[in-house]
Amino acid sequence: MAIGWYLSVSALVFSIGAAGVLVRRNPLVILLCLELMLNGATLALVAFARMHGNGDGQVFALIVMVVAACEVTIGLGLIVAIHRRRLPVDVDQLRELRG
Amino acid sequence: MAEAVFFVASLGALGGAVGVVALSNPFYSVLALVGHLLSLAALFLLLRAEFVAAAQVVVYAGAVMVLYVFVVAYIGGEERPVRGAGPGFPLGAPVFAGALFVELCIATLGSGLKAIDSEGAGYEAGFGSPAQIGELFLTRFLLSFELASFLLLVAAVGAVVLARRRRGLEDEEDLAADGRRVISVGDLFRPEGVGTQAESAGLIHERREREERQRREGW
User: Fold this and answer.
1) DSSP code of B171?
2) What is the CA radius of gyration of chain B?
3) In Å, what is the CA distance from B62 to each residue of B31, B34, B51, B83, B138?
4) Complex ipTM > 0.90
5) Is the pLDDT of residue B16 over 70?
6) How confident is the model at residue B155 (pLDDT cuts 50, 70, 90)?
């Protein structure tokens, strides 16, 4: 398969994830949609690594996975803290930081 | 053969992505993401990224998703209808996503890179193998490797700080099921004024008063 096909799939996954971040109201699902966006980027990185025949892109993809794992840990910690304080787990109602 | 695998795997990846966004129960969203990650690992294998595919399955689809399932079970995933971006402009999110897709396609496919229409560079033995990735991590990308490990440490400490219990200990937790006090070794040797949670909740002070009272009454 040509590399372009992989890039189209990665662009599609990224846009679906971006739409999910905008549509959903549950912070857990918003984190899942962020994962989708990161995965779209990872697929593009691996596809370009294949295109150039160079391992650097794959190393970058692994670093992206590390960043995603950190983001998940902190995000889930925040959600658990929100739940502990009996606040609603809904981004529409958690708007104290809104400018 | 590669075309068929690509077709099935990309359909699985896109279907999983749509499932994450469209399913109203967060638990099913997590399961859809697991399917999406597995299909993505198949795409990585087609791109000759063996090690990334294996890490994706083991770390991502395994460990991270189990963490998600635990948190969904803890929070109690409520089913809530999926709504539009806002009451004033409900079509905003799909329009934005479509525009983003078109822009990304222009940015990548329209970049004029000649190799985009090819199958990529010739395959050399060992490309994408753990040996090659490990060598790159320990030679050219040593700094980013160390920074990644430090980032993971910071994230782990941060998660503990964020999610720990702040309200102090409940008094009931000190009592065993038959009503007797449970005294842990830490209670006997813990110095006062060190800011433990039991102390901030007033439990140690309360306990000392209770013992004082009991001694006065001649127990």
Assistant:
1) G
2) 28
3) 11, 8, 15, 30, 26
4) yes
5) yes
6) very high
Mean pLDDT for A30-42 is 94
Cα(B52)–Cα(B156) distance, integer angstroms: 23
Give the bridge partners for B181, in sequence order. Answer: B175
| Residue B170 backbone class (left: φ over 0; alpha: ψ -120 to 50; beta: rest) | beta
Q: Which residue of B has its CA nearest to A89?
A: B75
Q: DSSP letters along B115-126, please? A: GGGS--SPP-TT
Domain A3-84 has CATH 1.10.287.3510: yes
Residues of B in contact with A81 (CB under 8 A): 162-163
In chain B, residues with a C-beta closer than 8 Å to the C-beta of A52 are: 115, 120-121
The CA distances from residue A97 to A91, A92, A93, A94, in Å, are 11, 12, 11, 8
Mean predicted confidence (pLDDT) in A38-43: 95
Nearest 5 degrees, angle CA B193-CA B199-CA B204?
100
Beta bridge partners of A12: none
Q: Domain spans of chain A?
A: 3-84
Top CATH class, B1-79: mainly alpha
pLDDT, one tens digit per residue, over B182-193 is 666 666 666 666
Chain B residues lying within 8 Å of A93, measured CB to CB: none
Cβ atoms B60, A62 nearer than 8 A: no
Give the residue on A whose Cα is nearest the Cα of B37. Answer: A39
Q: Once rounded to an integer, what is the mean pLDDT over residues B101-125?
A: 81
What residues does each domain of chain B span? 1-79, 153-219
